[in-house]
Write a structure and sequence with these properties.
Helix 1 crosses helix 2. The protein has one domain. With about 80 residues, it is an all-alpha fold. The protein is globular, with a radius of gyration of 13 Å. Helices cover about 65% and strands about 0% of the residues.
Amino acid sequence: MSKPGQVNREQMIRQLIAVRAYEMWESQGRPHGHDAAHWCQAEQDIKACLADSATGDGPAALSGGAPTGWSRNNR
């Protein structure tokens, strides 16, 4: 069984991924049929950002979260 804090963290991460995927979809002109690709890329971006923040390496360590439009490729 998951701990309450872990569930909240997983929900937060899922929400960050959803927001990032939506931003990507909008920035690319709202194309139809690319939802899975946007989700996968957003998931990679957010997980990379969280890993970087854990080591004090990425933008999340400085600002408390990934800025809008940030991806691992923006370093």
